[in-house]
Amino acid sequence: MASEDTNRQHLYRIAARILVVDDEPRLAGALASLLRSYGYDVTEAHSGRHACKLADTVHFDLALLDLRMPDVDGFAVMAHLESQQPECGVVVISGESSFTAVSRALRRGALDYIRKPFDPEELIATVKGVVDKQSLIKAHENIQARLETSEALHRYIVNSSPDIVFMLDADGHFCFINSKIESLLGYTPDELCGKHFRHILDDRDVAKGIYALNAPDISADNPRTMEIRLKTRGSRRATRHFEITAFPIAPQSWTHNSSTRGGGSGHSACYYGIARDVTERKEAEAFINFQAYHDLLTRLPNRALFKDRLELAITHGRRQKQKLAVMFLDLDRFKVINDTLGHAMGDQLLQAVTQRLETCLRKGDTLSRFGGDEFTLLLPSIHGKEDASQIARKLIKTLKAPFLLGEHEVFVGVSIGIAIYPEAGNSMDQLIQNADIAMYHVKARGKDNYCFFSESMSVDSTYRLNLERDLRLALEREELRVFYQPQVCASTNRIVGLEALVRWQHPERGLLYPRDFLGLAEETGLIGLVSEQVLDQACMEVSQWIRSGHPDLRLAVNLSPVEVDHPRFVETLMDRVKANRFPAGNLEIEITENVIMNDLEQISQKLRELANIGIRIAIDDFGTGYSSLNYLHRLPIHTLKVDQSFVKAIRSSADDACIVNAIVAMAHGLKLEIIAEGVETDKQLEYLRTLGCHQVQGFFYGPAQPATDIAKLLKKTKATLRCPIDLETTPAKIVRHS
């Protein structure tokens, strides 16, 4: 023990830093040497001024100080140390022995007074005693500070907790509650202490709260956790959701005499608990639940909720032997409005349509947004078709009035197909499918009307299903063929390009044209595979002609909006071009204005990536879209294709062709190539030549032809075409479509 004590003292001596101040360097040096021999860290100052400078920068535990110094005396140094380092002890070593000097030094804070000449042992004993006393004082202050910090920390933790912390007595009255109650519920701790906890419980949860607190199995090891609603302070008494954990306090763990800041002292506390605000979580859960069963744009039930309610309605109808109706509603002209005014206006229109449709419903009917511009309506408990007809007429009528979207006044209609249970089906899927089939029959007969499903309608549906099956087989069997329509230089009659057009060599129905199956391909998601096969075949055939002596021959391909909108459109197209080793500079893709305007920024990026590798961009059916022409400056467009409807207007006078004149002039001004589609007569060709139209295509040079016929044409000298058909006798035999 003595050895450990000695080591401890030695370590402290090493740590203690002493300032020796005396204007006699010899005395200061001797004193410093003595102290260093005992392990102290000593700094010498040979004047009062020097001592004050050291005190400004170096921390000292003790100062041994002479009083009589010529520049700054010892009392001034003591005053400076008091202001800069109040924790530094001072021992005076002076030859001044008068009572007045000694008394003055002790009053100024000196811990001891040693007269010169000093006894070394007495001095060392005095220094040791002062250092030990200082260490005890510092240790006490440190412990006191730690206690105060610990108490402050616990107070801070409790009162700054994100949760309400509370204590209850045996009867359920608050005896402590932290200040969090004020920010969360608006009560002050003082006003709740002494009141029963039911004071802040929502009326619906009072019984639940009291039962939980009095449960027989509640213990410190088995606390009670429950979700409960608490009332906020105020007239409206809004509620918030809390997760509360509470358990009894073990008597041996709580002395009942600790004073705490906050509401109450905790005296007589028998229960301890915390209440965590979970209102946001509950609201999020409610929103997620709503989102799972509702359309967020229109706030209507979605497909899943509609099907649930339809299943219940069918079960009820079967038990009560009642009829019900399922309506399938599709908005007419919505796509045109959406493409023209943009998706934001389209969303506004859907919301406005929803509001009108809801005014026509009975209590208990379910209107849902099935997807896009399609809605479904469930009419439970109807007497017959007349009830459904009456609702259908009201729905059609309410949409007759125009809708105001910003500065635009637009009109939409609705096509409604109706399936009656049980005549049109006994299951949910049958009723929805048959209502959908009936709606398509309305579309085919002119739209903006309604009709009921009948068995004869399923024949057309069967045809579409069979055609889809055959198309899938056609892709596997490679029954698709590429025909080419020449694009001819208007001034030289040379073939400069070929537009690839798909045909389907159906094994039973013969040659089918795009209008017979491309719409179905887009609906069923097969358009990507169709385009892939067509592009592969066209690249393979045209690349052979390019290598065989026609290096400038251009291949033009039409692309579906579905393909262009796909996120991997650019990568997919580049992969097909590379896989077929087709020169990118000989490829021109044709897209419509509406495809561009659907998402100008995204399409712009895609087109620039393609243009950067040499692929040319053409705007097909130019002039028939509903968009700003500003994109012509912003996009890497090379060619404008004049729609054949404008070319047909070229007759006897220039007035008939004013649109063609404007488009050609615009193309010249923008330095774009221009191709006129649908050229059928000498008069049209000559007029276009006069305008300066660069290229033409159409039945004047023949319909689209298979690769074998095109190969023969290209073998002719300079690949020059004349009119190959007699337009006086042949038009009736030519099918004029792509």
Automatic annotation (TrEMBL):
Keyword tags: Kinase, Phosphoprotein, Transferase
GGDEF domain location: 322-455
Superkingdom as given in the UniProt entry: Bacteria
Transmembrane segment boundaries: none
Pfam family, one: EAL
Protein name: Bifunctional diguanylate cyclase/phosphodiesterase
Positions of modified residues (4-aspartylphosphate): D66
Domain EAL, residue spans: 464-718
